[in-house]
Amino acid sequence: MTTLTLLPDPGTPLARESAAQAFADILDARTSEEAIADFLIALAERGETSLEIAEAARALRARLIPITAPPGTIDVCGTGGDGHHTLNVSTAVSLVVAACGVPVAKHGNRAASSKAGAADTLEALGLDMERAGRLAQATLDDLGICFLFAANHHPAMKRITPIRRRIGRRTIFNLMGPLANPAHAPRQLIGIARPDYTALYAEALEQLGTEAAIVVSGEEGLDELSGAGPSIVVNVGSAALPTRIAPEDAGLPRHPIAAIHGGDPAFNAAALRRLLHGETGGYRDAVLLNAAAALIVAGHSAALPDAAAAAAETLDDGRANALLDAWIAYS
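== Anthranilate phosphoribosyltransferase ==
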């Protein structure tokens, strides 16, 4: 029988060794579920430090099932939880960026706080989640894109998920998705729903040795670059974008957030297909803005207007749509 250990008091910031041991004990089932719940709640109420976020990510990374990413691979992922229930912007961005020739290891999951997560929408489009997960390495190598379904790659989270549901509030694990990509993508565009957490999150990425990333948050609390107004941007590693970006910086018009309100998986999947078939409007421009930033982080483009134009070309000439079709056929 496993001997249960005691978690440290999270009332004050934890030292690196204490944080590393605490998250190892949590993920390896060496402490009780009640103790885990109390620890996570207290940590959230006190406010997590960048060191604690980084150590939680390190513990999760050490226990994931990995795949190998080619050089220059990028992930485009948000933490979720912004409450705006938008269309799947980062999923569409992943297709556009991959269609530009940048390898994309898209890490994602089913909906938690929204109506349709990336996995739900891709499944509604016809992607077989089980096969897509099993063939992730092959599709990344052959097509330049894969979907890393979180449930397939993070067995250590199986015990934590029901505890999080019982707690019913945000914990440090809500921040883990973009920090625990199974391909260890060296470049990232990360959206976070809390503008006040962008700098803290960027510090955690720096501690994790990220090659290049930007952490972004729409000023209205959107977990992506906002098509409605300015967004906060924090650079990590070699990334060097402006610290405040608005749609017009990429030569794009503004649209109200209502223009990208989503629905269930079938609704979001239909909207994504229309986008890939050339539909214009708020969804397209939000995708172009975020794709432009991702292309700059990936080293594909140097300026936002040029990057947005490159992204638009993949929609207009059908490359992004053809990539989705090839992906579905492959899987």
